[in-house]
Design brief:
The complex is a heterodimer of chains A (336) and B (328). Chain A has 336 residues and is of the alpha/beta class. Chain A is built from twelve helices and seven strands. Classes of the chains: A alpha/beta (336), B alpha/beta (328).
Chain lengths: 336, 328
Amino acid sequence: MGYSDQLTEKDLIQMYRWLVLIRAFEDRVGELWTKGSLMESPHGSQGQEAIAVGACYGLRQQDQVLPSLRTRGAFFVKGISARVQMAGMYAKATGAARGKATAHHIGDPQRGVLLGSGVVGASITVAVGAALAFKLQRKDNIVVDFFGDGAAQRGDFHEGLNFAGVFKLPVVFVLENNQYAELTPLAKHFAGPDFACRAQGYGFSGIRLDGNDVFAVYEAVQTAAARARAGEGPTLLECVTYRLRGHSESHPPTELRDIAEIEQWRAKDPIPRMRAHLTQRGILTDDLVPKIDAEVEAEIDDAVKYAEESPSPPPEELYKDVYAPESPELVVGRRS
Amino acid sequence: MREITYREAIREALREEMRRDDRVFILGEDVAVPGGIFKVTQGLLAEFGPERIFDTPLSESAIVGAAVGASLMGMRPVAEVMFADFTTIAMDAIVNHAAKIHYMSGGEVSAPLVVRMAYGAGPKWGSHHTQSVESWLANVPGLTIVMPSTSYDAKGLLKAAIRTPNPVVFLEHKLLYNKKGEVPEGEYIVLIGKADIKRPGDGVTIVASGMMVDRALGAARTLAQEGVSAEVIDLRSVQPLDEETILASVEKTGRIVIVHEAPVRGGFGGEIAAVVASKALGFLDAPIQRVGGPWTPVPFGPILVDAYVPKEADIIQAVRTTQGAAVA
């Protein structure tokens, strides 16, 4: 475990703090949805947080990530605040695109977040294109592209991975295999042995790993990132995990799922695992755990207050940003 | 003035823009070593090398999706979709990414890419290599759809398309590639969104685009011999649509015939008819006429294709209808 061994105590506490914050944020938005406060239906990432944190921690600001529908943590680790995310879920003017886009698809190129798509998996080729730009620009930045097992059945998965393999592009494909494509279990939408083996068909390596182990994810992504930066091309990482909540908060977790299956995976929850690990190493002390919990709750309280007090966009916002400003010597006649 | 083909004009635009801006690059199937299936990009690999123009897998979704991603990172890609019919495979990248990303980012990013594609019926191409797709895309806010009819416009419009920060679908009619036209030496831009009055007249307005412009001009010459003065407007782009030029013409002529190769039903001509009906109805002396493809796929053999594609005679017939009729 080369890269993980180099993580300092400060790093480890920060990673743990991200996990706790993401979980608490997801739990809170679930409660707010139930109360009817939110406009955006939450697609909770509870149970999958270790993938986002392990993959995004230690990336450069210029590295681009393209989150899936369920990579909440990628936004946090790449520096998009709880306030902006929460305001987006309230459809407020302080949220994504000033209320014109859901918090699922926040993009912020300065922080290295590419806009995702409501058509899951369709943006795999876009992530590949960002990596193509880095190669053409001779930059050693990389792209980390997240998508689920459902999205991996899209043609764009195959087109995107083949394209990346042919041109040896600096991209890390992170497949969040949470065993469900919306409501359909893996066995009913996938006949193969695993997803990782598909990478061989595109000329690069695929690795299947424990997506609930933040260190395993960190190690695999850092290794793949180093290869990508060195011009050695893409890697597919199949991170095996489990969605503890339903597809969205409109679906109860037990819809078409056995409670025993959920409980079995709850025992592998990435957050208690990391807490136990850090406690055992003496890094996470008895006073630190409640302190982090309290800080996180305060941050979320602040985000909720910010979102609730933020203005809604005026109706005129509808008409803004359809086209980027352009020279009247190039194009005329735009109308809404 | 020198005359060059539509193909050469497009190549000149690409070459000049690639020399001007090293962010411009070309990707697509068989565009580099083979020089394109229609030889539009021939010779560019030799000048610019394999990082500025390269052949891709046969993957329209990846070609256009990758162009979108690269454009977000500061590049200016020109993606080629070999036949416009293959847009179906790239539709998500065009419609859900390129067209919406500026909006969905609240103006933070835009996708400055051009997707070039060869469209239009020709003999022996069959139903999957011949469609006119502009109305498939014209209902998508965020897109710009350009359809040049001459060498001059092809060059100047493509240069504008490459420079604008917004995504542009650039439709090249495959039967125009060999057509020659006057193109001056040196730098010029043709403004996107401004229609071109190809022939002034005061008896009827004929609005056309792409290859139909030549058919409309041919019809206008014949009609002139019959004493009917037709004004022919080349749209140049369907998005934006130059409503002002169309309306000003109709206010003068009182009659309009709208021509495109795509099927009449659901075609973009319906939009133009609606604009005229809602904004210039009082000026109309005859019902609006539309000429276009029938409600069939584009067929294969030359006899059937000939029956499909609107001809000068069809345009003339539609004009005669406007001359004889009066609005009740």
